[in-house]
Design goal:
Structural class of chain A: mainly alpha
Mean pLDDT of chain B: 83
Strand content of chain B: under 5%
CATH superfamily of the largest domain in chain B: MetI-like
Number of strands of chain B: 0
Distance between the termini of chain A: 34 Å
CATH topology of the largest domain in chain B: MetI-like fold
Radius of gyration of chain A: 23 Å
CATH superfamily of the largest domain in chain A: MetI-like
Low-confidence stretches of chain A: none
Structural class of chain B: mainly alpha
Strand content of chain A: under 5%
Order of helices and strands of chain A: HHHHHHHHHHHHH
Low-confidence stretches of chain B: 1-21
CATH class of the largest domain in chain B: Mainly Alpha
Largest interface: A-B, 96 and 99 residues
Oligomer: heterodimer
Shape of chain B: flat
Mean pLDDT of chain A: 87
CATH topology of the largest domain in chain A: MetI-like fold
Number of domains of chain B: 2
CATH class of the largest domain in chain A: Mainly Alpha
Largest sheet of chain B: none
Shape of chain A: globular
Number of helices of chain A: 13
Number of strands of chain A: 0
Largest sheet of chain A: none
CATH architecture of the largest domain in chain A: Orthogonal Bundle
Number of domains of chain A: 2
Order of helices and strands of chain B: HHHHHHHHHHHHHHH
Number of helices of chain B: 15
Chain lengths: 265, 306
């Protein structure tokens, strides 16, 4: 009884994914304005190609790949350094620094938007790759900092003390001892932040406008506006295409996620 | 960069700069470690935050800005659209607390005891990897007037709403909460599973020996043990539900007539579509007070726990 309920729920959950796939593989010529529940032919490739060329979606994917990699890297490194300072170094009021950095994740993104937009226009950062990497990097710092700091507190302070006695400076201590020890936490933070940047729509539509700077979700949003004119199979193929990187990343790292969440809990 | 590394190392090696309480030199060494993170967060997030708070006290329209005190907030209170937006935001928060959290708990507990539960769980985890944008595209396909849901209604002989599901309040808000539930349940499942693994098997066995089973075992033994992780899941759900933007923006643009707007969408429309920066900023401030207030309550509970 209970298992039947669970299986029915699971099937319900899979229906949208099923409809997405069935309709995304349908050749445009076979689609007649009504969603299909059974496959009628296979032409996924040309739907993907149309989606890729539509509204520069392919370019958007390349842009987002660059933004997500660069900003997650910047954020993870900055978070690692700050976490090290707060946990291992003699800092006055470490909790003040913690809250100063962590505050960024408590505030809703909407509160930053308008001043950023105005400042970006005035400093010619608007619609540039640098501008996008800076804001995405900043948005990612607080949460990465939170993960890394929690992980660093599990490292016994004796390790740092022993190294200090051997005459190691703080930078050497960080790069040679702590950085290798927190590698897995840094990796987890990187994956989380990469996914976040990849999936962002809000900053993409606010701070960029040209197709060759626009991140993937902003391009996808434009395509979804042409649902009827482009044909649902092309739009759905686009949705499938932009989701693949994060789905693959998520499924291949699922175990890793769980263990890193356990470590930080 | 390399230069500063070597000097810092050399200075750190001198015995006089050892770890002494109150040594300013030693403390100053932490500054370069803190600067990248603090500068990024400070310049890109905290300064804009302060600017928005100030902007909410002006009549900024993108060209001129005069200080007008709390006039924007007075306008907010009198604006029926804002009332609707707050109501929708509350519906989103309550809906997100009940649906993804509740379903996530049930799925995590029952699939963990089930043969092949790992595979069944995948159905719920998969949508979590999708973006809000992709979710909106898929659900738009399901919910439009000639969409898949209406087809299913007709197939089973039920009467489908001719206008689809997105044109009337409160139906549009409710179906979007369902769409979001579809996407967001996965993370609750993962977190509850992590919590379940921390429950000692003896506790459950002892409960079973005492004759507890089925629903009683679930409510009286497993749910209380999951309390710490539940706090985390609920805290996350509150924050996420208050921030939802992509799904609503792509499915209805907050419409028709602002009927499905939440505060996050109202702020975007007032600021970037109508260019009423001052008023949009006031909406953002109200949203921030709600988010920070809710998160603060949750974090305090977390910290109290130790």
């Amino acid at each position: 009884m209970r298992n039947t309920f669970l299986i029915v729920l699971g099937v319900l959950w899979l229906i949208p994914v099923y409809l997405l796939i069935v309709n995304a593989i349908t050749p445009l010529s076979e689609y007649h304005g009504e969603p299909l529940w059974l496959p009628v032919g296979f032409d996924l490739w040309s739907n993907l190609v149309s989606a890729w060329n539509q509204s520069s979606l392919g370019l958007g994917m390349l842009n987002s790949f660059m933004y997500a990699t660069a900003s997650a890297l910047v954020a993870v490194l900055a978070a690692g350094l700050a976490g090290f300072a707060v946990v291992a170094m003699p800092v006055r009021r470490p909790s003040l620094w913690f809250w100063l950095i962590y505050l960024g994740t408590l505030l809703p993104l909407q509160i930053f938007l308008a001043p950023l937009f105005q400042a970006y226009v005035n400093t010619s950062l608007y619609d540039t790759s640098l501008g996008m990497i800076l804001i995405y990097g900043a948005i990612c710092v607080p949460f990465a900092f939170f993960i890394v700091r929690n992980y660093l507190t599990t490292i016994p302070p004796e390790i740092a003390e022993a190294a200090k006695l051997d005459g190691a400076g703080w930078w050497r201590l960080f790069f040679q001892i702590h950085l290798p020890l927190i590698r897995s936490a840094l990796f987890a933070a990187f994956i989380f932040q990469f996914t976040w940047v990849w999936n962002d729509l809000l900053f993409g539509i606010t701070l960029t406008t040209s197709p060759d700077r626009r991140p993937v979700m902003a391009a996808m949003a434009e395509i979804s506006g042409g649902f009827v004119s482009l044909g649902p199979p092309v739009v759905l193929a686009g949705a499938l295409l932009v989701s693949l990187p994060t789905v693959i990343l998520f499924l291949s790292c699922q175990r890793f996620f769980v263990s890193s969440l356990k470590a930080s809990a | 960069m390399t230069g500063s590394v070597t000097t810092a190392r050399r200075a750190g090696a001198t015995p006089s700069a050892g770890r002494r309480a109150g040594s300013y030199v030693e403390r100053a060494r932490s500054i370069p470690f803190l600067i990248p993170a603090v500068a990024l967060v400070g310049i890109m997030l905290l300064v804009p935050f302060v600017a928005t708070v100030y902007q909410s006290l002006t009549n900024d329209d993108g060209f001129n800005a005069e200080f007008i005190g709390f006039d924007n907030y007075v306008r907010l209170v009198q604006d029926p659209m804002f009332g609707r937006s707050v109501l929708n935001t509350v519906m989103w928060t309550v809906g997100t607390l009940i649906l993804p959290v509740g379903i996530g708990l049930v799925i995590a507990v029952f699939t963990s005891q089930m043969k092949g539960g790992r595979w069944l769980r995948l159905a719920f985890l998969l949508p979590y990897a999708l973006s809000g944008t992709a979710t909106a595209v898929i659900w738009g396909f399901i919910l439009r007037s000639n969409g898949a849901l209406n087809q299913a209604f007709t197939f089973f002989g039920a009467i489908a709403p001719a206008s689809g599901w997105l044109l009337e309040w409160p139906t549009n808000t409710i179906v979007m909460i369902v769409a979001n539930t579809w996407q967001a349940t996965g993370v609750a499942v993962i977190l509850f599973l992590v919590g379940l693994q921390a429950i000692p098997t003896e506790t459950v066995e002892a409960g079973t020996l005492d004759g507890a089973s089925g629903m009683r075992l679930f409510w009286n033994i497993i749910v209380p043990q999951l309390k710490p992780v539940t706090v985390v899941v609920i805290g996350m759900s509150i924050a996420n539900s208050l921030r939802v933007f992509d799904t609503i923006w792509l499915l209805t643009k907050g419409g028709p007539g602002g009927s499905s707007e939440t505060l996050a969408v109202t702020m975007y429309r007032e600021t970037f579509i109508i260019s009423d920066y001052g008023y949009g900023a006031a909406v953002a401030v109200v949203l921030t007070i709600i988010v920070v207030g809710a998160s603060w309550t949750y974090l305090r509970q977390q910290l109290k726990k130790g």
